[in-house]
Amino acid sequence: MSANKILIVDDEEIIVRLLSMSLRSDGYETFAAYSGEQGLEVFKSESPDIVVTDIKMPGMDGLELLKKIKEIDAEKEVIIVTGHGDIDSTITALQYGASDFINKPVRDEALAIALERAKAKIDIREKLKEYTENLEFKIAEATEDIRRKSNFQQLLIRSSNDAIVAFNHDWKVVVYNPEAARMFGEVAKDVRNKMTIDKLYTPKIAKIFKNQAKKGKQQNTLPWRENIINTKDGRQIPVRYNSNVLHEKGDFVGTVSFFQDLTEIKRLETELVQSERLAAVGQTVSGLAHYVKNILIGLQGGSYVVDVGIANNNTEKLKTGWKTIKRNIKRIGDLTKDLLTYSKQREPEFEACLPNDIVNDVIELVADVAGSNGVLISKEFDNSIGEVMADSQTIHRSLLNLINNAIDACVEDENISKKHKIKVKTFMDKNNYFCFEVKDNGCGMDKDTQKRLFDPMFSSKGGKGTGLGLLVTSKLIEEHNGVIEIKTSLGDGSTFTIKLPYEKAN
Amino acid sequence: MNKKVLVVDDDQDVRSFVVTVLEENQYIPLVAQDGIEGFEVIEKERPDLVILDVLMPRGSGIRLYRKLKTDENLNQIPIIMFTGIALRSFLKSQKALDEFKGGEIPMPDIYLEKPVEPEELVAAIKKKIG
């Protein structure tokens, strides 16, 4: 903004008019007053930027006007028009804060220069003012911004679901948010700026952090890892945490670490496992009901046949009926055993045993059933296997399951022109496993059956299977740190291979 | 003359039960282990009634049932379905097969869900062939 309004005060009207004319032609807006009093009034109503006043006037003189104007607004530029040699008045005017002096008679050039100087002063002052105001505003803005940011960060730290703990370079706690207080059980006022890392953390975690800081810049951030922390009241909480080493201009200034409470997650995980098990139990129950019903049918039929045998004194019937009953009692026994194996964790019982001998035992057990169904069982042994440390029960049950399945696959096969065979093979594989292979040329499996093979209670044998056999087998093999592999092709047969870690018995 | 009743079931426990029931009630029992063997016996022996399991290896009861019902010479032999499968599931499978193969196969004369008391089985047989 440039100063443009000028008030001219002089008791000589002609001078006022001349000056006004001259200034207006220079582009100023002028106001005229013919006495000190009138000058003050116009000053108040028009608020000119610059006042040019004669010093000698009747009534309120120039000095008086100057004084009054400066009282109202100290920053107004007042140019005093004096007579020659009027030193005293000039000094007084200076004391009152006049900005410039022009001698009478007023020459246009002198006035123009004085005005330019006044305007320049006003300009500078305005710029300075603007600058100062701006600066104040900027400082206020920046302060507010910092406050906001700091508040925001405080809030962020306070409301974080992660426990946030920061240490300074002396390993003293400087940041400790409410979640941290909840997790560690220590109240903030006892911790912040008081406690050190060794007091708050378990020695193991504290050591990890300190080592990390020592490593310097190459390990600024630790990946998330899991651990257990001890709370003040002695509880142990599973946590996931990471930490960052803080550097400022290359110097170590502290660390900040984030902890996540895994209690809830762990609980949900357990719950999920349990609900999956329950769902499996649900499936189990309907599959089992069917299977148990078949056993019941067998038992009822058997006891009827026995009744008839007793009534007629018919030994043949008695034998038949009794066989049926015994067979079904065995089915219940096997089912119970499978259920128990499936539902319980079991550690394998390692002992010295001969895998090839176990295969012989199992084949002997199933020989009758296989023979009566026209299935030929052959074997091929790797005699180098010898005596190993293994759970013979696991091997026995798994093989029995697989060979029984193989027999069923042969019996189920619709292609009766085939000569059905099962081959049981033992061998060592290159990864130091001793292996059993049960290969049949029965009906094989389609993709869908393969996919569901290890589903609880899934049976491809209608009501004749519990849907537990392979499940139990794979569980036993897993507990033995072994693997079970399947190759099958619909219509061509299946090959099941069990691989167990080889450990020679002394 | 005593009447011949064929029982087709892969479960030997069921077979020996049904055979005993038949003997006790003066029927001549015939047995077959699966659908294929069952058909052979039917063609050869022409039984007066067939007691048929549904789920069997090598030619299921469903297949044998449809084969008999579409065979002009054999479709008059009464059939008792004797099975662990719920009637609802059986009917569903029949309906699906009807739609798939075209034409409609008559429903079985009698459908018995295991387990069945001997008296119940006898009553069912008597109802069909006396």
What string, H for helix and E for strand, traces the elements of chain B in order?
EHEHEHEHEH
Helical proportion of chain B, percent range: 40-55%
Largest chain-chain contact? Answer: A-B, 26 and 21 residues
Strand content of chain B: 15-25%
CATH superfamily of chain B: Response regulator
User: Which blocks of ≥5 consecutive residues of chain A have pLDDT under 50?
Assistant: none
Counted up, domains of chain A total 4
CATH class division of the largest domain in chain A: Alpha Beta
Instruction: List how many beta strands of chain A DSSP finds.
Output: 17
User: Numbering strands along the chain, what is their spatial order in the largest sheet of chain A?
Assistant: 2-1-3-4-5
- Figure out the total of helices of chain B: 5
CATH fourth-tier homologous superfamily of the largest domain in chain A? Histidine kinase-like ATPase, C-terminal domain
Major sheet size, sense and barrel closure of chain A = 5 strands, parallel
The quaternary state of the protein chains shown equals heterodimer
- Which second-level CATH architecture of chain B applies? 3-Layer(aba) Sandwich
Helix content of chain A: 40-55%
Shape of chain B: globular
Give the helix tally of chain A.
Answer: 15
Q: According to CATH, what is the topology of the largest domain in chain A?
A: Heat Shock Protein 90
Outline the low-pLDDT stretches of chain B: none
Distance between the termini of chain B: 12 Å
